[in-house]
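chain below, 496 aa
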Amino acid sequence: MNNEENKQSQNIRNVELSSMANNVLAAIGMADTVRTTLGPRGLDKLLVDQFGNKVITNDGYTVLVSIRTNHPISRLLVEIAERQQMSVGDGTTSAVIMAAEMLKEGYRIISEYNIHPTQIIREIDEGLPMVNDYMKRSAITLNSLHDPLLQRVINTATSSKLDGKFIAELIIKAVELLDRTERKDFRHGIVLLRRLGDDLFINGIAIEHLPLDTSVLDQIKTPVICLIKDTLKLPLRQSAEDDRVQLISALEAAKINIIITNAPEIDQTLKLSLAAKGIAIIRVSTEELELLSKSLSLKWIYGIELLNGVNPPTTQIDSIEINEDDELTILRSPKSGVVATLIIGGVTNETSKERMRTCTDGISAAHFALNGGVVAGGGIAELNCARYLQKYMAEKDIHKPGFDVLIKGLESISRQILDNSGYNGYEMVLKIKGKPDGIGIDIDSGNFIDMVQHGIVDPLVTKLSAINVAVHITKSILKIDKNLLKAEDKQDISTS
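prediction:
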């Protein structure tokens, strides 16, 4: 290759690195937006919309989805954050910070040592299963709802959030009630509602609607519930009168005396006929109906299916009560095992939303801790995995740049938490790496402690999900050599 060809090749290489650098900088910029929110001493962000409405939050997910950004990489990170939030309910900040550190290290290696991105990606894929396996081996299984580590997980997940300590107490109270059942699905086993005002703890499932005719409840001795979706406006199949007779007959045959429906319109004569038969109707939104379906472990049925002879799914509860002051209908002791509803209040709509997010984080943490185990918190589980990869390379006398990328990302969580707590994160991480697995820093005293013994733990599932999401982002961005503006789709124009 002559000098001219070398020059052209280097120019192409510089263009590719320039595009990659811009993408990496965009990812780092997103991480810098949320990195100071991480940990028990994380700081808040003030979000202001175009109308001047203000939100104070340190929830990384809320910040990421709220800020304006046009860069495609920034938008990709927001999409990934949403996926993390939907799957495990927490860990979005950790995922974005790890991704940014991996990208920074990946770009440095590629640009300084002229290593092809696919080699980095291949070695990341080799190291990731090792990280996952090592962290799984360090996990501690929680065998019961009485395990003190379960409460500590809830406290850790809510500690830096708005009213975290008070909300953790509400969640723990609900978890203690669940001890009477075998249900471990906390995310649907504890019902969450939000409204302005004070918090409420309800022993049972609370519905924020009263029956259309509350007097019907006096006739109900053994409540049997059915969920009916969509319309109850007759006729559905034949004449209104025939449909009405068949619907009532099907409900009576199944011994149903409580209908919960999202039907926007209900046939007036049907409503009166059901009340005369001692069958109560509670109308809710579609979202509420879906929530009740999950909480009651009860599938809904369409009205037309009842007319076609389909046996309606039902569930029985101990009793049904109404709280007219708070406009609540309360289902006591359902067979599904749900025993508590937390109604999260707030002074303003925004504070109630923020407190609701705190509650969701705590419940998700408890759910995944009980159903997947816990590992050392404070970023120590990730730091131990980073040290394991370094030890592996030293023992094998090999060097894998892709492992270095993983190591940088894994080390970043404990370093950031320590930075946010007022320490020099780099110096403290170096000291911790000289200690056995599980040893971290007590941010209050600065002393070395066993994180698990001191109750500083996180759900294994949340940790693994964040790591795998961060790796996915890193590999996707490192493989992009150029950003192109896509042309608008054009319809074919045919001429006659």
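The chain has 17 helices and 17 strands. The longest helix spans residues 3-34.
thats it, cya
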